[in-house]
Amino acid sequence: MSGRESIIRPSVCLMPSKWLGHNPPRPMFLSSELHRQHLEVTRRYFLQLGAVGVAALKPLSAWADSDQALLDEATADLGYFTPQDDFGTVERGDPLPYQLPLAKRLEVGLERETWKLDVVPDPESNPQMGNPLSRAKGNALDFQALLKLGEKHAVRFLKIMTCNNIGAPLGMGLWEGVPLRHVIWATKPTANIRRVFYHGHHNNDPKQMFRSSLPIGRVLEDPPGDNPVILCYKLNGQWLTGKRGGPVRMLVPDAYGFKSVKWLKSVLLTNNYQANDTYAGGNNDIDSWMKTMSRFHYKPEKAKAGEPIPVTGWAQIGVGGLSKVQIWINPKDNEWPEDDPYFTRAPWRDATILPPPTRWGGDLPGGRLPDNVRFFEGNGQPKHWPMRYTLAHWATLLKGIAPGNYDVRCRTIDLNGIAQPMPRPFRKSGRNTIQRFSLTVEG
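-> structure tokens emitted (443 positions)
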């Protein structure tokens, strides 16, 4: 699909047509919880329009009853964190590992009581390690040892989970675990290490193995303002379920979901300079950072002339950060020049990026954040907003739209001043096409 436009359709996972092996990922409908993304913030925005003096919008006291009804409808079913059971899922395996009988899960280490992790040298390379951790040696990392490390080193941070081939995120959560580097250093590596290979449980069938990799530098050191790569065991304050990749999965905060391998079993340190990712075989850019992009949430199909039209949405914030969300209403009979496929000359106008929620939802007790969330103040407020690799919400109220048929589009502007889908419009490095919906304004 070109970057020119993306027509809104039901949110399903569209997978590449070719996959290695016999078990392609199983697409599922995206979570209905993603349609509960901004209850608190959008309500607060609309209620405070009069106070903040947004141009061309009436204060609350001047709204008609019909205005308020539209705003209520636009914001009635929204939240922020996604409960574990409501995440969208891209999964592979036959049978799916978490659906194995309990006795089998215990046997292969898919329960907390029996989980173990090998951290070993790549047998096809020449890394130097003084203390490999392995089942064969009887010193593999187990769950209790991981929690012991967590007493000193555990981190909690926000991350949106998203697939590079899907046009909408799978869910937004608070993830917790131990930075992988602490386990790497416990193996006493000394030389000849350039990448980290890792994979999860695959039913003892090599054709079902899902692999990914990272440069060793990304594991050992975090760019300023970024979170560490972690061995993750909690989501929204609860133990990671089998469906979400538990008991332990890899969690790579700045990457798309295929880097955050589920049901983690083995980590290999290697001197191989080449990636070994399963996704590489599907014509994907396997080293792509997450992109910044915007999507609609409330998008009415019809409206009446003279009445306000609320439009809301959310933005996935990638490596470029988020400066603006913009919206453009174009009559359907207004043909756009072919030499401007990303509508850079269109009369875009700014929407309002909303503040963080005061109730976070998800599985958190009382919807409240726990202490010691990275990049949050002691009072539970983020040090800056929007935060990279999370979700931000936006809203606007359209006024004075003449009767007619329109295409409505939204886009982001990142902190470098670059408009979506640039600077990386190529779909295989993450999908971020400009979204549109059709609106009929009746006279």
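The chain has two domains: 27-80+291-442, 85-282.
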